[in-house]
Amino acid sequence: MLKTLISRLPMLVLLASLTTLAAPAAQAQVNPTASSVQEQELMRALQTGDFVAGRVSIPDERAGALIKPGNKGWAGIQGTTLRVISVAAVLVTLTILAAFYAYRGRIRIDSGFSGRVIERFDGIERFGHWLLACSFVVLALTGLNFVVGRWTLLPLVGEDTFGTLSAWFKLAHNFMAWPFMLGLVWVFVTWVGRNLPSKVDVNWLKVAGGLFTRGLHPPAGKFNAGQKLLFWMVILGGVGLSYTGVFMLFPWLAGSPAEWQTYQVIHALFAAFMSVVIFGHIYIGSLGMQGAFSAMGSGKVDLNWAKEHHSLWVEEEVGHGKGAAGKPGAAATPAE
Description:
There is one protein chain. The chain is mainly alpha-helical. It has a single domain (71-319), classed as Fumarate Reductase Cytochrome B subunit, CATH 1.20.950. It has twelve helices and four strands; from the N terminus they run ααββαβαααααααβαα. It has helices at 2-28, 32-47, 71-104, 123-152, 154-157, 159-191, 199-206, 225-249, 257-284, 294-297, 303-309, 311-319; strands at 52-53, 65-67, 117-119, 300-302. The strands form two sheets. It has a two-stranded antiparallel sheet. A two-stranded antiparallel sheet has the order 3-4. α3 packs parallel to α9 (257-284), α4 (123-152) packs antiparallel against α6 (159-191) and α8 (225-249) runs antiparallel to α9 (257-284).
């Protein structure tokens, strides 16, 4: 018995060695047929509209979606349609403003500067205006980078710089959303009472505020019909931006991924609309009209400017004992 065992010992050692060497190889083997079937099932699921999902350890289980066919449609809208709309909105607006300037030129004070000024906006009003305006400019520029930056900024600065800038732009966009919302509420509370429609607005609109006719200045209160329209477009557009923007910041509040994508598209459309409105406001408040910028700069405007563009408001201020400062006929320096 012992002799038999000893005679077979080399064979047993050989078998043990082969088993030890073969074990890792056996463990590393993958069934190619099973793998092929799994891949075919995944491709079939994608073709039928289902999405491929994995497992995640974070609370939001929707983050486990790896591939979702429905995203192709959203990616097409985001990458093509919204880009075209955004660029077209900016270019068309600039073209219209340039054409209007070529036709009308700068709207000047017909009676010239009087040398006397009247307070148009106090510090609280101007603070709310500039808070809203400055935050929107940052949001517009950083948001525009998301839409067209890859085709405009990237070729100019290169991939590394573009990546760094885009990361900072994203942070700026996220954090400046809150000052924008605060400014929106501030402006609404401050001016809503002065921006309600009135009968005077009808006559102002009939002659387009005299914008196309030299020497025509229809009566208006503190805000004319055009400014009232601007006010409500900014408020409603700002609310739309803010509402959809919250879902951009906190996507799990949006519901399903499809709902989040819908909010993102609506957000971009509101942004394009607001950009058009603000472009027009910036133009008429600076280059387009003489004496207008000082209203939000120093808060004071020339008395002749106020009488031509807001005659009813001047009468109201005088009635309240708030006359103009300065001497009539004194030399005046344009505020703009």
